[in-house]
């Protein structure tokens, strides 16, 4: 998925991604060097230096496998460069971001990595002590700035749209569709609401201890996880028992356990 997104959508439209793949796209357009060669030439030395400086425990076989297999698939999908999916920059940003996010999300869900700038960030952290998140932001920002010089500012604006979509798609793959909701309930009729949730809606309830920020008094707080289709029943139940109850309902992206997905 990652290689198809790059060769079929991003590279033909001069749209960069973050990381070393972005460097590969820039060098491909400037020099004609295939992206799979750039990926290997940049990643393998980084991997070896990482093992040497930080130890093999930081860079497992999954990292090496991800790096080599990504380069292989860049090679296998390189004919797609001649037949791009679209020449419309906005469509390329949207659908390229979706496909890239799906691929990266699957990789991250398997607790693996394809190498790239996260290796650079770890090495720089070893030498200069900055946080890896800041270093990744700096590295990817530098790559995008270089792309602005090579391809123009407009292409970078499209690339930022793609990066946003990629990020959201990665979250979606790792966390799943938000079909469940978690409700936090503060009420003066704790037992009545608890029994209603247990026996009318047939959902488990956890009783927590909360302290009022204004009064300083301790009082119970009920937590209940329900499916999205059950939210209306939950609110109707609470409204009937205690119209003055304070209720917070928020997304629960992944719920594991009895009544939901197995842990």
From TrEMBL:
Chief place where the protein resides: membrane
Protein localization: Cell membrane
Membrane topology: Multi-pass membrane protein
This protein's UniProt keywords: Cell membrane, Membrane, Transmembrane, Transmembrane helix
Domain DUF2179 intervals: 203-257
Transmembrane domains' residue ranges: 33-52, 89-112, 133-153
InterPro entries xref list: DUF2179, N-reg_PII/ATP_PRibTrfase_C, UPF0750_membrane, YitT
PANTHER family, A to Z: UPF0750 MEMBRANE PROTEIN YITE (PTHR33545:SF9), UPF0750 MEMBRANE PROTEIN YITT-RELATED (PTHR33545)
Name used for this protein in its record: YitT family protein
